Each structure stands twice: as structure tokens, then as C-alpha cells.
């Protein structure tokens, strides 16, 4: 097919940091190109230049064979470039049709309605319906966006771009927020769009998805173009090595577990969610010393509330949380962490770090008050710095500075800061919630090895993850949750992807 | 770990970079004051005055003569404390606009202690100040508790408590009130304070100003050097992370509001004990609100509150001279103040006017933190 896009020799620097160094990328109409790279490799910078958010320092962009002059996102949209951001740009209380039409509303044709610019709802909804049928993106145009699951909201974003006439779609880590089932559906939609002639740039960390849907792959590392590959010739292993620049062990290497006494025992736990409805409805399980218990389940089945209740952040409505032999039901977060519970939170930006604090302050976020970091209520900054310098070295946090604010780090390095802090304290139980979400292959390998290392040191690990591969690769036992309850607990070695998938979806697992 | 870390390569330049950051932070306020002077000068030109001679008169009146400096510092003293109150609360993400009410309570209760009991000076002065501050702190703690446990937004509650405090103090010193000065006739005020409660001056310089500076340094130290300060700033920067880190967020909100209100209350006490020698409601009009201007001008840095308050205090101290020499109404000074606030609060406007590289987004202060959370 015809060439749709060519980005030639793009360079972008931020102060001393070269985010993109002479990067090139080509895309044909109807082609899906996977853009791969570690956190901070420059993928987002590249597509942001294409979408007009950043201006390149040098280099050229050709769209439809013409030099494209894109100085802001409005230009990009006008020329037929659409982007679906990681964080959706939707107005939650408006309907699907209203969101899609926003900024390009169909207005009543006559009368007072036309004068006041009243939106012609019926016409807008018909337009959306036609559009969604054309591309097989099924959405109810009259549904209110905030009531829709994340996967459907994402479809609304895609429809919004298509409605503006997008012939090139940029999808920035679209599957990071999706359940496995929603991901499969998105991949199908992408294929259908490509068949209609839309060119797609697909940014992701998940090699399985890249192999499933892309035609070609372009890899960046440290802001430089490393190479391209035809997807049909690539394997997970070969792509991972291109990204990281060394051979990567994708399978976690771990020996037999040697479980000891229980460190955590959750008995008939009941917890409510933010809106006051029951989220955890009688969950029971046990984590022993020296074992990893994986909690598998589609997100939104009570995992978040369960973790928050165990760590003291959320109120327990019923049942018990017991550490060792001591009851910690509704204990304060401080007393939970003082007993020896480390917590890698699900939402790292919100809970795990203070963005405008330095790396050093974040490294002592929950130990700042203890010796040697404080003495009689006075902070001892020299000790804090010394500790932080040790941790960034040991956990390979990049860049190697403890004074820069954590917001300036890439997602993977933020996660390393949290992992470093939580796994370096002298703990007995590790609660790890989505520990590798949005993290690149090299860091995933590192974090997985750390968790296994903690297990081998005799600590209990409670691993909550929506990634089946992660659960299957790490867990010694797997508890599958559905609608706030543990439906079944399986031994790690006997569990299969299919069986867990069925249990996660609410099936009995026997059929 | 590849090698043991024995030395700290960043420790040395850490201090100097903190200083550099502090100096960088000064740029925006200085440019804002300059731009305000330019725009104010244009207004003066339009109204037929020579802006240079007006500004020269302000500087001469407020900053060059001994008695002028004394007057400026006297005006600046409650402004330092009111500015500190706002800046301190900001650190925990709280917007205390109840400084006016807290200041009135502090002024009234300090006056009551000052006139009603007899004590040796060394005890009487701090005791009256402490009572004034603590009564205000109690009000602040109520605001904090309403926020922490009931989710009532502090902007709303502090505005409402301004009315409560204003009417309460009006009543206390009114004819029917218990603290009324029988010799005052129609004027609602307390009797004169006993000499033992009056804060003395050191030459022309009011000693109250040194109390205010002491509190500024104390607030800076508390925020930047102690674990308590770390808890306050963490709560302000990210409440969720603070809770996750085991910080008792409700406790921090209540204590921060109490300390903030305490500072405003001491500001009122200094007015009664150092300036007027009694409490009279009309003597304190608007002081609490000037604290907001000063906190913003100081970019919520407790130490920077001192020069910011001296600047605004100097402007206020010059109004009489301007009226005498130029027949310029005191409102001109209010316009200058408002312009300064405008440019400080709208850094993107300043950035548009002064295309100065490095005046970046990091210098924005978020005023809306806490709304809707």
C-alpha cells in the first residue's frame, strides 16, 4: 500500500537529555507498526512530535508524501492524525455521542435551538452509530461515559479520532489499562481498522501483543533508532534482546518453595469500595513464609480493596486480618508497616511516591521518622542521602541522581524507587500489587527476581496481578478471585492459563 | 551494589543548589514588583502625577528615615505573622483565609489578659501573646477537625468563622460586653493595657517585629528540618501517599490549621500589645487578608515572608505622606498591592511579558489544591 508517513532523522533534546537522536520511522496505509523500547527510550517523545505536542529540534515529517507542518495537536488532527493517550481525554458525565462530537458538534438546524447552538442529539447519535458499525467498534452512543468500563471508554477515544477523519492512529500503551479479554478485543479492532486502510503506531511493552497484531516493529533504545523487524520473523526473545541490548531471561528462574509458618491469614474479609458497595465479600486465604501466593482475577473484583484493607488504608467491615499470630484488623497503616509489611501499591503515582519530592525523600517515605534517618524528631539528611545513594545503585535507578524530583523519572524507574524502598526494609510480608505494570522488559525481569529472592529469604509474598503470565511465572499457589471472593486456590505447577482464565471469568473451572 | 558508598558526591553541591534554587525563586516576585511599579506608574501618569517622585517619596518616607523605618516595621509585624499563617497552611495543602478572624481573636484575648490581670513584664508579655495565639489556634483546630472528619472545605469554614470571630470580639468590647472600656463612651474597645503587657520599642524599632521574625525562622526550621514538617509537606504534596506512608493525615490537618491560626492570633496580639495598647476592632481591618498577598509574594517560604511583609508594610506606612504631598488617596497603595498580587499569582502573564528562559512552570504555586478532594 501507499506510504502514509515518514519521519526522517528526528532529534529532540530536553536540556542536557537527548530524548530522540536522529530517529526515523515509516508507516504505510493499512499497516500496524509496533514501537518498542524500554521506559525512557523515547517512544512517547517521538509520537508527541508527530502529534504536535513537541516541536522537533531537527528532522522532517512527511505525511501523504508531503512535508507536514504540525505545530500543535489541532494541526495533526486536521491532517488526519489521531492519538489515543494513556490517560483518556473524555468528559465523564457526558454521553458517548456528546464526547465524540465535542468540538465538532452537530447543531440543531433551525429555530431557537440553532440560535443557542443546541446539539442535535439524534443526528449525533446516528453519526456515531454509523461510524461504530463501519469499524466494528460497538458502543451505545447514548451511554454516559463514566458508567462504561475502561475498555469501552477506550473505544470511544478511538471513535473520536476516527470521527475527526484520522487515517493514522497513535495508540500509546493502550493495553496497560485493559483486562485480557478487552485486550483481545482491542487487537481485533486494530486489525479491522488496518484492513480499512488506517495506519497504526502501536506502543506497548507486551511482546505477546506485538507478535499478535503488528506487521512490523521498530525498536528504540536510549533515544536512538536500533532497528526494525518484520513481525513474522521475530520472536519474543529476539524483540526483548533488541529492546534491552542484552539477552533477557523471560521465564523466572526459581526453585522449589519451602513454606513455613503463616505470616498473613485473611479470614472471611469484607470490605466496601469508594462508593460504599460491597467489594470484598468474605475472602479467606493464607500466605506462608517462603512462598508466593498469587491473586489472579480480572481487575475490579475486589483486589484493590482487599490489599488496602490488609495494609490498613481502608476500613475492614467484617472478618479478620492476622499477621503472624496477631490480629491487625483495622490497624493503622503505620502499625502494619512497623510489624513488617512492605507494600508495593497498585497506583504508584497516587499512593507510592510524592512526585515533587526528590528520589532521596521518596526512598524514606515510610521510614523518615526512624533512626538513622531522624533523631529526636529532627531529620538527618546525610543519612537519608547515604541510604538513597546505596539504593539507586543496587536497584539500578536511572538517572543516577537522588536530588531530582521523582516526577522526572520514567514510569519504570519510579517503580524501581518504590520496589527499592519496600524490599530494602527488614520486612516479613511483601504485598505487591501490579508490581510490573507499565514497566519495561528489563525492569520486569529485575523485579521478578527480587520477589523470588525475597521468598527464598523466608518472607511471605502476596502478589496481586492482572497479568496471567506474571501470576503463572511467579506463584507457588494461585488464588483466583471473582466478585470479591476466592473461587478456587490452585497449586502453581498444576495451574494452566486456560483454567485460570475460565475461573477469572466466573466459570466453575470444571466444565 | 557494585561498590560501597563511602563518600557522598552530591552532599557538597546539595547546599549550594538549594541556595541557587532559593535565589531563582526570588526572580518572579522581584519581576512582579517591578511590573506592578510600571503599571502603577502609568496609572499615576494618567492621573497627573510624576510616578518617579511618588515612588521616591514612598522610599524616602518608609525606608530611609529612622522614624519611617520604625513605622514600616510596626506595620510589617502583623503582616509577617499573617503571611506566615497563610504560608504555613499552604504547605499542608490548606488555604487558610480565616487569618482575619483568627487575628481578631488573638488581638482581643491578648488585650483582655493585658488589662485585666497584673503580672511581671517578663511573664505578662508572653502570657498575653500566648493566650491570644492559643484561642485563635483553638478556632483553627475546629476548622481542621471539620475538614479532617467531615470533609468541610477550609476555605468555606474559615470565611464563615471570620464573621463569627468578628461579631464575637465586637460583642466582647461593646457597651453590653464584659470587656468594654467604661471610659470609651460610644467607642467599642477594651480598657488600656497595663504597662507590664506592652511590648516595648528598641529605639524606633518595635520589638514585636523581632518576635515575628523569630516565628518565621521557627516555622522554616519546623517545616524543613523536622519529621513533623516532613509529614506536613507530604500531606500537602500527596495526601494519598502520606496515608500510605503511615502518616496520620487527619492529625496533620488539624495541627497545621491550629499552628496557622496560632500565628495569625499572635499577629493580632502584637497589634494590641505593641501598637494600640488596647483592642479596638476597627484598628485591625483587612490585616488578615493582606497575609494572603504576602504569603504568595513570598512564594510560601517562611523566611521570604519577612521581606514581603516589610515591602507591603512600607507601602502602607507611606499613605499619609502621599496624601499630604501629592493629594494621592490611600487607595493608590491598594492598587499597587493588588497589581503585585496579580503578577505574582499569574506567573504565565509575567512569563509572557518577560521572555526569560528558566522562569518555568516549577515556579507556579497551586492555589486550588484541596478543592474537591
Walk me through this protein's architecture:
The complex is a heterodimer of chains A (about 500) and B (about 375). With about 500 residues, chain A is an alpha/beta fold. Chain A folds into 3 domains: about 5-245, P-loop containing nucleotide triphosphate hydrolases (Rossmann fold); about 260-340 and about 430-510, 3-Layer(aba) Sandwich (Rossmann fold), CATH 3.40.50.300; about 350-425, no CATH class. Chain A has helices spanning about 45-50, 75-80, 95-100, 110-115, 120-135, 150-165, 180-195, 205-215, 235-245, 305-310, 335-340, 350, 360-365, 380-395, 410-425, 440-455, 470-475, 495-505, and strands spanning about 5-15, 15-30, 30-35, 60-65, 65, 80-85, 170, 200-205, 215-220, 225-230, 260-270, 280-290, 290-295, 320-325, 325, 340-345, 375, 380, 430-435, 460-465, 475-480, 485-490. The longest helix of chain A has 16 residues, at about 180-195. Chain A is globular. The two termini of chain A are about 45 Å apart. The relative contact order of chain A is 0.11. The mean pLDDT of chain A is about 90. With about 375 residues, chain B is mainly α. Chain B has 15 helices and 2 strands. Helix content of chain B is about 70%, strand content about 0%. The model of chain B is unreliable at about 1-15, about 360-365 and about 365-373 (pLDDT under 50). Chain B has a domain at about 75-315. In chain B, a hairpin with a 2-residue loop joins strand 1 and strand 2. Chain B starts with 10 loop residues before the first helix and ends in a 20-residue tail after the last helix. In chain B, helix 3 (about 65-90) runs parallel beside helix 7 (about 210-225). The longest helix of chain B is centred in the first third of the chain and has 36 residues, at about 10-45. Chain B has helices spanning about 10-45, 50-65, 65-90, 100-115, 120-150, 155-175, 210-225, 225-235, 240-245, 250-275, 285-295, 305-315, 320-325, 330-345, 345-355; strands spanning about 200, 205. The interface between A and B is medium-sized, with 38 and 26 residues.
Amino acid at each position: 500500500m501507499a506510504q502514509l508517513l515518514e519521519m526522517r532523522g528526528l532529534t529532540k533534546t530536553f536540556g542536557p537529555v537527548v530524548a530522540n537522536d536522529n530517529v526515523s520511522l515509516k508507516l504505510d496505509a493499512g499497516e500496524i507498526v509496533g514501537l518498542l523500547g524500554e521506559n525512557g527510550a523515547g517512544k512517547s517523545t517521538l509520537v508527541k512530535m508527530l502529534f504536535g505536542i513537541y516541536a522537533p529540534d531537527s528532522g522532517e515529517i512527511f505525511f501523504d508524501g508531503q512535508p507536514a507542518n504540525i505545530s500543535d495537536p489541532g494541526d495533526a488532527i486536521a491532517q488526519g492524525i489521531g492519538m489515543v493517550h494513556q490517560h483518556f481525554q473524555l468528559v465523564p458525565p457526558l454521553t458517548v455521542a456528546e464526547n465524540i462530537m465535542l468540538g465538532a458538534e452537530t447543531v440543531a438546524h433551525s429555530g431557537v435551538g440553532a440560535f443557542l447552538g443546541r446539539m442535535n442529539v439524534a443526528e449525533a447519535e446516528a453519526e456515531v452509530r454509523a461510524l461504530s458499525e463501519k469499524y466494528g467498534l460497538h458502543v451505545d452512543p447514548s451511554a454516559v461515559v463514566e458508567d462504561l468500563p475502561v475498555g469501552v471508554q477506550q473505544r470511544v477515544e478511538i471513535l473520536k479520532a476516527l470521527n475527526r477523519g484520522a487515517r493514522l492512529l497513535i495508540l500509546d500503551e493502550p493495553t496497560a489499562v485493559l483486562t485480557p479479554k478487552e485486550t483481545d478485543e482491542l487487537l481485533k479492532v486494530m486489525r479491522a481498522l488496518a484492513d480499512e486502510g488506517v495506519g497504526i503506531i502501536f506502543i506497548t511493552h507486551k511482546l505477546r501483543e506485538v507478535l499478535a497484531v503488528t506487521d512490523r516493529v521498530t525498536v528504540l533504545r536510549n533515544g536512538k533508532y536500533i532497528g526494525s523487524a518484520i513481525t513474522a520473523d521475530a520472536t519474543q526473545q529476539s524483540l526483548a534482546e533488541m529492546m534491552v541490548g542484552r539477552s533477557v531471561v523471560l521465564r523466572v528462574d526459581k526453585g522449589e518453595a519451602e513454606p513455613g509458618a503463616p505470616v498473613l491469614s485473611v479470614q472471611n474479609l469484607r470490605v466496601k469500595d469508594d462508593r460504599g458497595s460491597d467489594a470484598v465479600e468474605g475472602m479467606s486465604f493464607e500466605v506462608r513464609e517462603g512462598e508466593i501466593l498469587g491473586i489472579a482475577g480480572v481487575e475490579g473484583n475486589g483486589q484493590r480493596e482487599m490489599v488496602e484493607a490488609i495494609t490498613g488504608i481502608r476500613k475492614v467491615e467484617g472478618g479478620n486480618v492476622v499477621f503472624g499470630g496477631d490480629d491487625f484488623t483495622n490497624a493503622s497503616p503505620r502499625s502494619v508497616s512497623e510489624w513488617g509489611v512492605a507494600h508495593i501499591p497498585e497506583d504508584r503515582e497516587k499512593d507510592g511516591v510524592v512526585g515533587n519530592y526528590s528520589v532521596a525523600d521518596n526512598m524514606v517515605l515510610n521510614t523518615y521518622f526512624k533512626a538513622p534517618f531522624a533523631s529526636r524528631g529532627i531529620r538527618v539528611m546525610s543519612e537519608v542521602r547515604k541510604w538513597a545513594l546505596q539504593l539507586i545503585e543496587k536497584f539500578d535507578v536511572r538517572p543516577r541522581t537522588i536530588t531530582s524530583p521523582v516526577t522526572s523519572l520514567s514510569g519504570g524507574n519510579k517503580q524501581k524507587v518504590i520496589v527499592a524502598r519496600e524490599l530494602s526494609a527488614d520486612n516479613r510480608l511483601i504485598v505487591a500489587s501490579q508490581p510490573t505494570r507499565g514497566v519495561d522488559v528489563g525492569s520486569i525481569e529485575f523485579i521478578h527476581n527480587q520477589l523470588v529472592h525475597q521468598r527464598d529469604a523466608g518472607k511471605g509474598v502476596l502478589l496481586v496481578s492482572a497479568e496471567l503470565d506474571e501470576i503463572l511465572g511467579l506463584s507457588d499457589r494461585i488464588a483466583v478471585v471473582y466478585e470479591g471472593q476466592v473461587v478456587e486456590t490452585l497449586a502453581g505447577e498444576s495451574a494452566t492459563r486456560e483454567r485460570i482464565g475460565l475461573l477469572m471469568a466466573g466459570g466453575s473451572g470444571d466444565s | 551494589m557494585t561498590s560501597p558508598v563511602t563518600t557522598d558526591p552530591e552532599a557538597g553541591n546539595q547546599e549550594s543548589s538549594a541556595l541557587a534554587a532559593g535565589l531563582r525563586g526570588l526572580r518572579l516576585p522581584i519581576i512582579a514588583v517591578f511590573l506592578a511599579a510600571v503599571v502603577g506608574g502609568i496609572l499615576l501618569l494618567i492621573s497627573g502625577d510624576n510616578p518617579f517622585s511618588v515612588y521616591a517619596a514612598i522610599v524616602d518616607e518608609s525606608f530611609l528615615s529612622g522614624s519611617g523605618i520604625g513605622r514600616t516595621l510596626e506595620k510589617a509585624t502583623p503582616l509577617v505573622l499573617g503571611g506566615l499563617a497563610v504560608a504555613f497552611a499552604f504547605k499542608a495543602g490548606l488555604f487558610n483565609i480565616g487569618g482575619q478572624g483568627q487575628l481578631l481573636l488573638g488581638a482581643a484575648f491578648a488585650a483582655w489578659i493585658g488589662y485585666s490581670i497584673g503580672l511581671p513584664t517578663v511573664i505578662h508579655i508572653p502570657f498575653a501573646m500566648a493566650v491570644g495565639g492559643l484561642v485563635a489556634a483553638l478556632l483553627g483546630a475546629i476548622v481542621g477537625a471539620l475538614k479532617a472528619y467531615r470533609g468541610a472545605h477550609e476555605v468555606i469554614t474559615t470565611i464563615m468563622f471570620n464573621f463569627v470571630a468578628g461579631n464575637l470580639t465586637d460583642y466582647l468590647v461593646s457597651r453590653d460586653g464584659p470587656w468594654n472600656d467604661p471610659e470609651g463612651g460610644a467607642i467599642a474597645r477594651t480598657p488600656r493595657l497595663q504597662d507590664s503587657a506592652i511590648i516595648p520599642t528598641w529605639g524606633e524599632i518595635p520589638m514585636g517585629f523581632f518576635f515575628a521574625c523569630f516565628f518565621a525562622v521557627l516555622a522554616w526550621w519546623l517545616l524543613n528540618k523536622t519529621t513533623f514538617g516532613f509529614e506536613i509537606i507530604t500531606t500537602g504534596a500527596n495526601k494519598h501517599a502520606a496515608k500510605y506512608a503511615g502518616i496520620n493525615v487527619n492529625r496533620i490537618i488539624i495541627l497545621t490549621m491550629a499552628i496557622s491560626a496560632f500565628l495569625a492570633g499572635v499577629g493580632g496580639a502584637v497589634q494590641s500589645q505593641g501598637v494600640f495598647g488596647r483592642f479596638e476592632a476597627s484598628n485591625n481591618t483587612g490585616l488578615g487578608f493582606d497575609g494572603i498577598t504576602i504569603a504568595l509574594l513570598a512564594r510560601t517560604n517562611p523566611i521570604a515572608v519577612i521581606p514581603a511583609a516589610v515591602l507591603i508594610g512600607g507601602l502602607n506606612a507611606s499613605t499619609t505622606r502621599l496624601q499630604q504631598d501629592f493629594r494621592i488617596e490611600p487607595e493608590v497603595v491598594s492598587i499597587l498591592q493588588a497589581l503585585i498580587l496579580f503578577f505574582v499569582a499569574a506567573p504565565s502573564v509575567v512569563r509572557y511579558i518577560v521572555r526569560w528562559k528558566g522562569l518555568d512552570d516549577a515556579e507556579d504555586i497551586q492555589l486550588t489544591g484541596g478543592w474537591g478532594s
